[in-house]
Amino acid sequence: MKKSIQKAEILLESLPYIKEFFDKTIVIKYGGAAMVSNELKENFALDVVMMKYIGLNPVIVHGGGPQIGKTLDALGIQSQFIDGQRVTSQEMIGVVEMVLGGKINQDIVSLINRHGGNAVGITGKDGDLIQAKRYKKVKLCPETDRPEIIDMGLVGEIKHVNPKILETLDRDEFIPVIAPIGRGEEGETLNINADFVASKIASALKAEKLLLMTDTNGVWDKKGNLVTGLTCKEAESMIRKKVIQGGMVPKVQCCLDAIKDGVRKTHIIDGRIKHALLLEIFTKEGIGTQIVEKRI
Q1: In angstroms, rounded to a whole number, what is the distance separating the alpha carbons of residues 27 and 48?
Q2: Domains of the chain with bracketed CATH
Q3: Could you give the CA distance from residue 179 to residue 206 in angstroms, rounded to a whole number?
Q4: pLDDT confidence of 283, banded at 50, 70, 90?
Q5: Is the pTM of this model over 0.90?
């Protein structure tokens, strides 16, 4: 009986959050270990289905870099990375679209639907969801000490998000699962960073929350301790002081951009934790790092 009462108390703890987020849009960037481990994949699908059944509107944007890399290696196509981004050649883009928009996307859809959800897989090209342009990366040339433009190939930068298809799916109670591919200015397919896509989609939908699932427990301070909460000003200061650095910088910047565009709360959470989504959304303690405009 004692265990049963404890279970009831856990359910009651989530009630205020269910009420607060009922009928609200939660955009989730799904990636990292949570997409690799079979147990974590099952947990993720269950979390998403539960969110939908209790009245939230989850929208999923997934990554797939390691899976793309494995397929390219199997085909004998070498990858080149600049600052963590894959230079995407014409030869590669077909593989990228096949892996992201095909295999990975449909595996996620199938898993959610197997657990009782009603998911639909799309790419940023469907319904003209993501209009993009070729990304022009500018770096300082050490030889001349002048800026130079580096050709990233078919890597995209988002110009505009048209959320109409997502709003239609939401009205019909579907769970959108989005592959981070966009349409370029000349109709070409562009490969876009999934964090950036999730941020821009959250902004376009004026989502309640943006959650970025990673393989780290969140943002660390200069002593290596987890920072559970940051304001935009504090996060910007930590970037300037290089406390936040490396691959965490673009993730935090995605959160800052989303907040400036009207998203209420953003979170960087550890996808290696079982039921990470439910722990972040429905418990007082939460997990990871929350970034907001200002503290209440």
Answers
A1: 11
A2: 14-290 (3.40.1160.10)
A3: 20
A4: confident
A5: yes
